[in-house]
């Protein structure tokens, strides 16, 4: 079948909208390098200069700076920051907050990579309250919107200098047994209307049917957006190959693709 121009599939992200793929900048090589490189250790983070290069947005990672000095540093950096309105950078990451070992060190590691790549938008899954508190304290150049505040949940981080948040919405999955939901944030970037969506679909092989039902709800929500809004969905879908390739799901997706033009 011919895929409608209104749908874009970018590096695992489902996208509905009128903005073409070149709008989105994904640093594939940097992402691959960071995956295979050893994680940044805490001693390295502690040696980081409190005033970073002006080409990066600063996220404080250390305990040595006060909140006021962090805010001042961010403002100083952002004054010299030249944003490229033709691109949008985005990271999606399951940060495995359910693993309770070395929480402080691993939270600092999350902030390290956000500081390193300075993405415009970050989708996080398996966030736990200590991680959320740490991010809210340290990532002062981002608006952070959580999908919940108890147990574990998703969150979306949006760079204040690039993204203007309009509203957000949380849609619970009605039959989940794992507290899963869909988090969406409506915003504008360089005058473009966007809706950012993230979710952590039901886990494990035995919950395949529930996982597909959740994906269908996501696709339905995407298709209901106004034609002027580009929708980007990314997250931890837990989808298996056979689930994505199944004929039933293909027919369902095709139905919503075609409904955009009827």
Task: Report on the architecture of this protein.
The chain has helices at residues 28-36, 42-46, 67-79, 103-117, 129-138, 208-223, 241-245, 247-259; strands at 7-10, 13-16, 90-94, 121-127, 142-146, 153-159, 163-172, 181-189, 192-200, 229-236. It is an alpha+beta fold. A 6-stranded mixed beta sheet has the order 1-2-10-9-8-7, covered by helices on one side. It starts with 6 loop residues before the first strand and ends with a helix. Mean pLDDT is 76; it is low at 1-12, 20-29, 38-81 and 258-262.
Sheet-strand content, in percent, reads 25-35%
Structural class: alpha+beta
What is the CA-atom radius of gyration, in angstroms? 19 Å
The chain-level mean pLDDT equals 76
Considering the chains and any ligands shown, give keywords for the structure.
disordered N terminus; 4-stranded mixed β-sheet; disordered C terminus; 262 residues; single chain; globular; alpha+beta; 33% helix; 8 helices; 6-stranded mixed β-sheet
């Amino acid at each position: 079948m011919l895929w409608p121009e209104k749908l874009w599939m970018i590096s695992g992200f489902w996208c509905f909208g009128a903005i073409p793929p070149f709008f989105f900048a994904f640093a594939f090589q940097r992402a691959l390098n960071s995956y295979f490189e050893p994680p940044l250790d805490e001693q390295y983070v502690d040696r980081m200069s409190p005033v970073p290069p002006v080409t990066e947005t600063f996220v404080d990672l250390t305990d040595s700076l006060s909140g006021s000095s962090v805010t001042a540093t961010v403002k100083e950096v952002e004054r010299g920051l030249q944003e490229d309105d033709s691109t949008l950078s985005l990271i999606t990451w399951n940060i495995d907050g359910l693993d309770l070992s070395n929480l402080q060190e691993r939270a600092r590691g999350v902030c390290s990579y956000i500081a390193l790549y300075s993405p415009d938008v970050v989708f996080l899954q398996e966030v736990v309250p200590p991680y959320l508190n740490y991010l809210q304290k340290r990532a002062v150049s981002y608006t952070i919107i959580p999908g919940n505040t108890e147990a574990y949940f998703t969150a979306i981080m949006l760079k204040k200098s690039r993204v203007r948040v309009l509203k957000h919405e949380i849609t619970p999955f009605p039959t989940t047994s794992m507290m899963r939901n869909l988090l969406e944030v409506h915003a504008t970037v360089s005058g473009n209307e966007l809706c950012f969506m993230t979710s952590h679909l039901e886990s494990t092989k035995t919950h395949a049917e529930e996982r597909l039902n959740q994906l269908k709800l996501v696709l339905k929500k995407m298709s209901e957006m106004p034609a002027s809004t580009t929708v980007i969905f990314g997250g931890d879908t837990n989808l298996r190959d056979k689930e994505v390739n199944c004929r039933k799901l293909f027919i369902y997706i095709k139905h919503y693709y075609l409904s955009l033009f009827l």
